[in-house]
Design brief:
The structure holds 2 protein chains of 2 kinds. Chain A is an alpha+beta fold. Chain A folds into 2 domains: about 100 residues, Ubiquitin-like (UB roll); about 140 residues, Fumarate Reductase Iron-sulfur Protein, Chain B, domain 2. Chain A has 9 helices and 7 strands. Chain A has a 5-stranded mixed beta sheet. Chain A has a two-stranded antiparallel sheet with strand order 6-7. The longest helix of chain A has 25 residues. The radius of gyration of chain A is 21 Å and the shape is elongated. In chain B, strands 1, 2, 6, 7, 8, 9, 16 and 17 form an 8-stranded mixed beta sheet that branches. A 4-stranded antiparallel beta sheet of chain B has the order 11-14-13-12, covered by helices on one side. In chain B, strand 1, helix 1 and strand 2 form a beta-alpha-beta unit. The radius of gyration of chain B is 22 Å and the shape is globular. The termini of chain B are far apart. Classes of the chains: A alpha+beta, B alpha/beta. At the A-B interface, helix 1 and helix 3 of A face helix 3, helix 4, helix 10, helix 13 and helix 15 of B. The structure holds flavin-adenine dinucleotide (FAD), iron/sulfur cluster and FE2/S2 (inorganic) cluster. FE2/S2 (inorganic) cluster binds next to loops of chain A.
Chain lengths: ~250, ~575
């Protein structure tokens, strides 16, 4: 069927500001939006710039706004959008991160936030000669956050970052902190507090659930953030109590 | 960007990151990657990493090594396979200790499942050897290693594309990179360079591989005069989603999934009575093709793009959601079906390069004379140690990355302690600059059209079943496409984020590798592992038990051969 992709274009070497261009292409209802972009790049205009790699929703390269919602272009089929012959699909880059070119945004700030929460196992106790023991239930406690592919959709959708506080760490960074905070093998919460326990850290989150709604991996992001808030509060009250006991 | 390093690792997949971690203990190390590290293809690996932990049943590294050798149809260098199997065990413990969230047994040990070709006691029955984290094992390996690199403050240059290796004689002295953001070229001097650029499935039309899998490392080596090893051995995985190529992991069969033809028959009973659906991939892909040709595919039209069914309905909802949740998600997203209730339409998909840059067991690249090139290393899918021979077993690539990625990293650490930076000849960037200029003035076909033509030729003529005449016609077609490439056009005249130019550079690499693959396939007159010749259906140890090495000298291939190490298990007929 014939579909029009309405794509935001911006070339920093030529354009003062972004504008939209229309591309009419022939696609199937089962085609991915990414297939359409590749078709345009191959046969219509090779200068169209976007990121892509795995093409099946695992590498996190191609998050963008598709009809106004954060989605992975490779995981969004035309039929999911209810596209009809002659229909239009609007495609824009993610929000909240500096625009680079066409559908590409600068991800450095997003990854800086991720790195700031020390997203690695912290535990100085010697592990012994084999694996550390972890029960299936303990493993299950971190299952959701381990699915994150760092695509940036939640960061773009977050109303706090968009409207109030662009310095908020963002949902993905907090989620990835929770990946370790709730790992039975980790001992690193105190070391992560300087990044998390501050106004631009976890407390900027207002539980608006947009992250959870857009996450292409179906992660309950807000829930993980709230559990982490509760864990930090517990740690604080334990500390307070210990101080009071002195 | 710094211009001098003790070591530069090209590639931020499993192999590159592990090497970077090891080498960074000894000096200043940078990782250069055309993708953000977490976007690397290692993240797509689903089913598991093989290691004889014996957590659920008796298992031994010797059994793992034997399965690897037999699975590779005796083209495997056997001492290297022993190293792979022996060191896999500690490597998996190390990954766990770094934080990798493996799935667990009720006792809290790393859980293990069955995978194709992995057996108990030298072939008796399937064994539970694949350690896994649901069906995102590679994702967890990639994340864990990247996280460790963050912890150890390794320098990363993300979205820098390597365009040239700088050699002085056979020694590697640096490299030239193209910065995506600015379009600028930079020269980096380094005592050691390691290539860990992954596979090149994008040579074929239907593939499980990412867009970025364009074989840049092997192509750079080839252009530097280094021969590539065993390029005719390319693996087609039996179960890609029909029409799309997206992989459905073998773990689905490891958990009990069954392949069926249009009559509902479990056809693997006829081809591999003992291991059935857990036979090695080459046998299953060929079995599927035989079924399709016999009219037993689901459409029944005897075409090679027909398909069969992978039936996982016996697993039940709970197992599907716990053990293969991502597969369930792919099925829902791309097929609109639930694998717990509907069978999955599948067909073979181009998956893995057994061949590549020849190395020894320390990751040192072996040059034209067979000796190591000082300062040049390779590991991971772009390298050929050779532990996969003519057909890789499932779960053995992830093992290869961590075992040989780490070994290379360690060797680099030793090497840089004793080596010094070498001066570079003037004009190190000239070659790359001229190339970019030439491409930007091309007026011919757009690279995209050439790419699609190449993928079609390779799929149809250098695919699962090959034949001499077809192979030669593939060579002629690829040669014509390479000619066309010389005038190819870039639509994008800009400097910043010129992805059009980048894709054209990747296409050059794919075309070079396609050419040597087609030549190598036409030349090997036998059938072995992933290389099947209609006109030479038998394995021929007398003539062909040898690794091929191919160089490209002004577009013309030069072949030589080297012995296979068969010091542990003498070659035997392969039955399953
Ligand atoms: C869908 C799928 C599932 C799989 N499942 C399994 C499994 O369950 N078990 C298993 O053992 N194996 C599996 N494999 C195989 C395995 O995942 C790969 O072989 C392996 O991950 C390759 O890792 P690598 O480190 O060699 O390269 P990759 O992870 O592919 O990384 C390559 C790196 O090189 C960089 N690079 C490439 N070219 C350049 C350049 N010119 N300049 C700069 N950087 C460059 C890229 O940016 C990237 O960082 C699977 C493969 C696929 C496709
Ligand atoms: S939480 Fe979800 S939306 Fe956010 S980065 Fe991770 S995968 Fe993307
Ligand atoms: S291309 Fe990898 S997530 Fe879409």
């Amino acid at each position: 069927m014939l579909i029009t992709f309405q794509i935001q274009r911006y070339d920093p070497e030529k354009d003062a500001s972004p504008h939209f261009e229309d591309y009419e292409i022939e696609l199937e209802p089962e085609s991915r939006v990414l297939d359409g972009l590749v078709r345009i790049k191959t046969y219509v205009d090779g200068s169209l710039a976007f990121r892509k790699s795995c093409a099946h929703g695992i590498c996190g390269s191609d998050a963008m706004l598709i009809d106004g919602e954060e989605r992975l272009a490779c995981k969004t089929l035309l039929r999911d959008l209810g596209a009809k012959p002659g229909g239009r699909i609007r495609i824009e880059p993610l929000k909240g991160l500096p625009l680079q070119r066409d559908l590409m945004v600068d991800q450095e700030k997003f990854f800086d936030a991720y790195r700031s929460v020390k997203p690695y196992l912290i535990n100085d106790e010697p592990p012994g000669p084999k694996e550390r023991i972890q029960s299936p239930a303990e493993r299950e406690a971190i299952d959701e956050p381990t699915k994150c592919i760092l695509c940036g959709s939640c960061y773009s959708a977050c109303p706090v970052i968009r409207e109030k506080n662009p310095e908020f760490l963002g949902p993905a960074a907090v989620l990835n902190a929770s990946r370790f905070v709730f790992d039975s093998r980790d001992r690193g919460l105190p070391e992560r507090l300087p990044a998390l326990d501050r106004p631009d850290g976890i407390w900027a989150c207002e539980s608006k659930f947009r992250c959870t709604q857009v996450c292409p991996r179906g992660i309950k992001v807000t829930k993980s953030i709230n559990l982490t808030k509760a864990r930090i509060e517990t740690l604080r009250s334990i500390k307070k109590k210990a101080m009071g006991d002195l | 960007m710094r211009r001098e390093y003790d070591a530069v690792i090209v590639g931020a997949g499993g192999a590159g990151l592990y090497a970077a971690l090891e080498a960074s203990s000894a000096g200043r190390v940078a990782v250069v990657s055309k993708l953000y590290p977490v976007r690397s293809h290692t993240g797509c690996a689903q089913g598991g990493i093989g290691a004889a932990l014996g957590n659920l049943e008796e298992d031994h590294p010797e059994w793992h090594a034997f399965d690897t050798i037999k699975g590779g149809d005796y083209m495997v260098d056997q001492m290297a396979a022993r190293i792979l199997a022996d060191e896999a065990v500690q490597a998996v413990y190390d990954l766990e200790n770094m934080g990798l969230p493996f799935s667990r047994t009720p006792e809290g040990l790393i859980d293990q499942r069955r995978f194709g070709g992995h057996t108990r006691n030298f072939g008796e029955a399937p064994v539970r050897r694949a350690c896994y984290a649901a069906d995102r094992t590679g994702h967890m390996i990639l994340q864990t290693l990247y996280q460790q690199c963050i912890k150890h403050e390794v320098d990363f240059y993300n979205e820098y594309f390597v365009v040239d290796l700088l050699l002085d004689g056979s020694s590697c002295v640096g490299l030239v990179v193209l910065e995506l953001k600015t379009g600028e070229l930079h020269t980096i001097r380094s005592k050691a360079v390691m290539l860990a650029t992954g596979g090149f499935g994008r040579m074929f039309k239907t593939t499980s591989n990412a867009y970025a899998n364009t074989g840049d490392g092997p192509a750079l080596a080839l252009r530097a005069g280094i021969p590539l090893e065993d390029m005719e051995f390319y693996q087609f995985h039996p179960t890609g989603i029909a029409g799309m190529g997206i992989l459905i992991t073998e773990a689905v069969r490891g958990e009990g999934g069954i392949l069926r033809n249009r009559r509902g028959e479990r056809f693997m009973e006829m081809y591999a009575p003992k291991l059935l659906d857990l036979a090695p991939r080459d046998l299953i892909s060929k079995a599927i093709l035989s079924e399709l040709k016999a009219g037993n595919g689901m459409r029944g039209d005897r075409q090679i793009d027909d398909y069969v069914l992978l039936d996982a309905t016996a697993l039940g909802k709970k197992v599907v959601e716990e053990k293969i949740p991502d597969i369930a998600d792919f099925c829902r997203t791309y097929l609109g079906i639930d694998p717990a209730t509907d069978p999955i339409p599948v067909q073979p998909t181009a998956h893995y390069a057994m061949g590549g840059i020849p190395t020894d067991v320390h990751g040192r690249v072996l040059g034209a004379g067979g000796g190591a090139c000082p300062g040049l290393y390779a590991a991971g899918e772009c390298a050929c140690v050779s532990v996969h021979g003519a057909n890789r077993l499932g779960t053995n690539s992830l093992v290869d990355l961590v075992v040989f990625g780490r070994r290379a990293g360690r060797h680099i650490a030793d090497y840089i302690a004793g080596a010094s930076l070498r001066p570079l000849a003037a004009g190190s960037e000239d070659g790359a600059r001229d190339k970019v200029k030439r491409l930007k003035t091309g007026r011919g076909a757009h690279g995209g059209a050439i790419r699609e033509a190449m993928q079609k030729t390779m799929m149809e003529k250098v695919g699962i079943i090959r034949e001499g005449e077809e192979g030669r016609s593939a060579v002629a077609e690829i040669e014509a496409l390479r000619d066309e490439y010389r005038g190819a056009r870039v639509d994008d005249a800009g400097a910043a984020f010129n992805t059009d130019l980048l894709e054209l550079l990747e296409l050059e690499n794919l075309l070079d590798l396609a050419l040597v693959t087609a030549h190598a396939a036409a030349r090997r007159e036998e059938s072995r592992g992933g290389h099947t010749r209609d006109d030479f259906p038998e394995r021929d140890d007398a003539r062909w038990l040898k690794h091929s090495l191919v160089r490209l000298v002004s577009g013309v291939p030069e072949f030589s051969y080297k012995d296979v190490d068969t010091s542990l298990y003498p070659p035997k007929p392969r039955v399953y």
